[in-house]
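S.,

Sequence below, as promised.
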Amino acid sequence: MNHGMMGQGMMMGPGMGHCGMMGTAGNAASSPLTVDQVTQNMTQWLAWQGNPCLKLGTVAEQKDGTITADITTQDGSLVQKLVVDRANGWMRQAP
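The prediction came back faster than expected:
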């Protein structure tokens, strides 16, 4: 994908937002996000995108306290890896 699925500095929270953000626009998560919350939010976001070729792959907590989420094709090929800061919900593309 040319610019990735999400712009840099996206925020993830308990629900769906607007302008490419998840959660309430501009508000940080009130408590650290869990792997389950990231999984639920990313699954909802992908469904909202309406692209049947994409699905959520592995979502895992990392040693640095972040959570990574893989966006894959239906056959499991990696499209994009995102890093979610558990403390504030901000997301970025993994290097």
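The radius of gyration is 12 Å.

Coffee later?
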